[in-house]
Amino acid sequence: MLSCPRCQATIEPTTIQCPRCQLTLKAHGHPGIPLHRAAGEEALCTTCRYDADNTCNFPHRPQAQTCTLYRSVHQPLSPDLPPLSPGDRFRLWLRSHGGVVALIGLLLVSLVLVLIR
Ligand code: SF4
Ligand SMILES: [Zn+2]
Fold this sequence. Notes:
By secondary structure, this protein is mostly helical. The chain has helices at about 50, 85-95, 100-115, and strands at about 1-5, 10, 35, 65.
């Protein structure tokens, strides 16, 4: 059992809206989408991983008081997930640097063609 952050009423983990004070506890009316809420005046973004690594493009950043994607910088990154294999890491690197790799390949082919003439 949990308690409502505003009125302390006892609620279920899947409660979408507090039955006593009507505070929205889940996003989009879905019990599986948590709605993170700032505890005080300080915005959630100040302690959010996606603000820290500058990958968030939500319009309410950096002053979000509620957010569905908030991830604390103090939480470890998915400790239950296995680390990526070197092959997976190389594929990810290739996907994000595909243009540069293609350009270098083109330059090498051009160089070889010039040298064999
Ligand atoms: S994901 Fe939400 S809490 Fe995190 S930086 Fe973006 S808007 Fe702020
Ligand atoms: Zn409440």
